[in-house]
Amino acid sequence: MRSASQHDETDRRAASVRAVIFDVDGTLVDSNDAHAAAWAETLKEFGITRHQAEVRRLIGMGGDKLLPALTGISSESERGKQITARRAARFRDDYLPTLRPFPEVRALLARIAADGFRLGVASSANEDDLRALLDVAGVADLIFRTTSSDDVESSKPDPDALHAALAKLHVPPTAAVMIGDTPYDVEAAKRAGVPAIAVRCGGWGDQDLAGARAIYDDACDLLSHYAPQIFGAAT
Predict the structure, then answer these.
(1) Which residues contact 220 (CB under 8 A, 6 or more apart)?
(2) Is the peptide bond before 172 cis (omega within 30 degrees of 0)?
(3) Residues catalogued as catalytic
(4) Residues 25, 126 contacting (CB under 8 angstroms)
(5) Are 213 and 196 in contact (CB under 8 A)?
(6) Residue 132 confidence (pLDDT) above 60
(7) What pLDDT digit, counting tens, does each position of 182-197 carry?
(8) pLDDT band, very low/low/confident/very high, at 151 (cuts 50, 70, 90)
(9) How far apart are CA 32 and CA 29, in angstroms?
């Protein structure tokens, strides 16, 4: 049986735990254009013409929201499931092998982890794609817990992925920060009560990312300005 002092020490350690939750596509891996191309090409196969630039503005949502936003087709309908499955296969077969991480991604995450933060992922990708993307990024071994679209009912900008990530990381919203590249990341973080840091490398401008408490170019820029306080550690 633990003493009162041991319980107090456990409580203090739990209270001191902080987490950094990452988006992956467009944040760690340069994949947003690939996702947009896979969607546009797949829709064309089904007789639906959408320009890649039109699709690109919606990348960052999960397919449950992107497909109906683009086409009016429910992702739960039979046709929607066919389109979604074909898009996933096209992305994995044609685009995933070509993807690369943004510069200094592993160095940044290793630095954050070394400072005692728990690293999590809240992604709109499905579990299989997420594992592959983390391998591309070269950071799978640094991540404490992951949350994919398979873990939630509704994707970003709904806050479900953030709620699930916080639960897996065992931290409250006030002990975490979210790093993402789209307005959907920023909105999801806001709705989950988690401060957001945005990066421009996913293709969005500062006006699109308004609401983030700080905006950097990419992982390399974040690393060059590194300080634990950026991620909410006590000064």
Answers:
(1) 102, 103, 104, 108
(2) no
(3) 23
(4) no
(5) yes
(6) yes
(7) 999 999 999 999 999 9
(8) confident
(9) 8
